[in-house]
Design a protein that fits this description.
mainly alpha, globular
Length: 71
């Protein structure tokens, strides 16, 4: 249950910050950069613990970074 809460919390944060990537209209600030970096680190940790798959990691990374090709 705790792992699920962590995962959904990260996904929520990704949705909030997704406008901060290269295709987003929001300006990148140092605070937003730090938030994005910490989310990437947490996603990597979830991947290493096999809570999320490599494909899920890549998808969330693309969304976070504002990759236009992300579904």
């Amino acid at each position: 249950m705790k792992k699920d809460n962590l995962m959904w919390g990260l996904f929520g944060a990704i949705l909030l910050l997704s406008g901060c990537g290269s295709s987003g209209q929001a300006q990148m600030t140092p605070e937003k950069f730090k938030d994005m970096y910490s989310i990437l680190l947490k996603l990597d940790e979830l991947k290493k613990k096999e809570i999320i798959t490599e494909a899920e990691f890549q998808l969330q990374k693309k969304k976070l970074l504002g990759d236009e090709k992300a579904p």
